[in-house]
Design a protein that fits this description.
The protein has three helices and five strands, in the order E-E-E-E-H-E-H-H. The protein is of the alpha+beta class. It has a domain of 73 residues: 2-Layer Sandwich (S16 Ribosomal Protein, Chain: A), CATH 3.30.1320.10. The longest helix has 9 residues. 10% of the residues are buried.
Length: 147
């Protein structure tokens, strides 16, 4: 299928584009094209489009890339809506760093699973009260009261 696409020409950091008619299977940098249909330089705002040749090829069923479609709308070569040529944004979930690690299958098989059984604590009345204070501890001296 034939397409009208942009082919980059120009030096480093000075992009300029050539509007070419080429087979869609050719890469953009192959240099193989059937016809030059114009040029586009966004930096200098100099655009040259051979409108009569473009309309002829469009009548023959040639396809357009998204950027060329929008460029032709800008120059009023075709009357249509612009196409969003930017890729759709995809949502990436934030990575949680505090995820507990699960043991590997080998580790899980090596360690038997032990269920904890709740131990009933004795009631307060069952705990014996100490008979006397321990002999080692001395009572703290009382502070004098000042009136």
């Amino acid at each position: 299928m034939l397409k009208i696409r942009l082919q980059r020409v120009g030096r480093k950091h000075e992009p300029a584009f050539r509007l070419v008619l080429t087979d869609s299977k050719n890469s953009t940098k192959s240099g193989r094209f059937k016809e030059i249909l114009g040029s586009y330089d966004a930096r200098k705002d100099v655009d040259l489009v051979k409108t009569d040749r473009v309309k002829y090829w469009l009548s023959q069923g040639v396809g357009l890339t998204g950027s060329v479609h929008n460029l032709f709308i800008k120059h009023k070569v075709i009357d249509a809506k612009k196409i969003n040529v930017l890729p759709k944004k995809t949502y990436t979930a934030p990575v949680a760093e505090a995820i507990p690690e699960t043991p590997k299958k080998e580790e899980a098989a090596a360690e038997p699973v032990v269920e904890e059984t709740p131990v009933a604590e004795p009631a307060a009345e069952e705990i014996p009260a100490p008979d006397t204070a321990p002999a080692e501890s001395t009572p703290a001296p009382e502070a004098p009261v000042v009136e």
